[in-house]
Amino acid sequence: MLIPGTGVIFTISVGLFQGYRASCYAALGCTFGIIPSLLASIFGLAVVIYTSAIAFQIIKFLGVAYLLYLAWSMWKETGSLILDEKEEKNNLLDVASKAFLINILNPKLTLFFLAFLPQFIPQHAEAPLNNMLLLGGVFMVMTLCVFILYGLLANSIRGYIINSLVAMKYIQRTFAASFAMLGAKLAMTER
Prior knowledge:
mainly alpha
């Protein structure tokens, strides 16, 4: 099923409601949120998450709770835009932090790296660690570029959205429902 992930939905929503600059911070946060999953896969911690039902469930339900928090925050959002430059800087760091947490609290990302990356490492590679780091780095660069593109596209229609309070309200509610549905989907995920 081709459903955009939480990072994509978050980046698009930030691009629509806060602009291109904020969506770039969301893209950076999502990209840096890949690092712990990549390192867990490289150093074998992903196997612990995969084989330990308790570890997987803890990470999974923290992720579910966080997605539901994002859904609630988006649902109750007033739609006001930031005009104060100092407040905007703090908000950009908040956006990056939220995006970072989205990927850290997604156990499926760690399992993705565990299942996906080793397939592309030659069996008799002299430096499999270097190969994993290279593949992970390529994945991160691609993620960053694609997410920035999503933010740019969202920002391009931003003017239509922010000029209509009715459209803003319904789009915010749609994003809130999307986060809630992704949280429900994650809650039903099995290892």
